[in-house]
Amino acid sequence: MHINQFIEKMPKVELHVHMEGSIQPDTLITLAERNQVALTAKTPAELRQWYTFTDFPHFIDIYRTFAKCLRTAEDIEWIARQFLAGQAKQNILYSEVTYTPYSQYMANGISFEDQLAAINRARDWARTTHGVEMGLVPDISRDIDPKAGNIVAHWAVDGMQDGVVALGLGGYEVGNPPEKFAEAFKIAQQAGLPAVPHAGETAGPQSILGALDTLHAVRIGHGVRCLEDANLVKRLRDQQIPLEVCPTSNICLNVFPSLAEHALPKLLDEGLYITINSDDPPMFNTTLTREYHQISQVFGLGQQQIMALVLNAVKASLLSEKKKQTMLTTFQSAFDALK
Ligand SMILES: [Zn+2]
Known about the structure:
By secondary structure, this protein is α/β, with parallel strands linked by helices. The chain is 53% helix and 12% strand.
């Protein structure tokens, strides 16, 4: 089977993808009409243009528009269903999904409990209808006050029996070091909830060190800028801390000038634990499937290397050891059948 066909059909796991960042332009138009929110772009074509990533402030502007358009728990359930149907279409059998509950709480007063219940209705629906599963990663946006961060940590801990698998940290990295939210992550850690912060994307190695030492990160969102510090690379390799690499996202955010100049081959050569992810797919005009296509084409990765990356994602997930073993066996049989 040709590698492109193999990539499309192979089962996948995704560890770094944002639910709000996965809202498709058509869905946003419907939500805006339903909730009478005026959008600057009116047609799907104009909206796609507006969606196209230009710079970080514009990116934040898009996220604010999402918060304005999501008025009710039903809206949240709907975007969660759309998201999971999109994952199913790509044969992504399990996703760990980042979601920013504090934005919806501040914009529309929807309690975390109601937000989580809405997402869990979508999750049940997706399991029954599409056979796909998800874990939720509520994240703290770095621009909020540390005290608000503590609130998010308490919410996440409360949701541990209800699909929450980790506490995340996202938003503008520069000027907002991980240490700002030390207390929030301590709350999570004391409850046994793992930390999966973004770090080493728009800020350098110091941010990754903060994520490891202060937040006790079990995985690093992005982490690609670890290469600027040889000692840190050694530590990440020795401890086999998984990195959630999102190639196209890195190009859009100017972390690297082009995919050909992306650090992926170097990260692999260094023996680091790499997983491949899509981040905010419609904004970066991508999907997880496309990310695999791109890296396969640009770096000449074959079936063996692609399969190893997929299996890395299974192993780096926060599923129980038993579920991971079952999934590894299922994936291996699916790969064998495709070959
Ligand atoms: Zn992200």
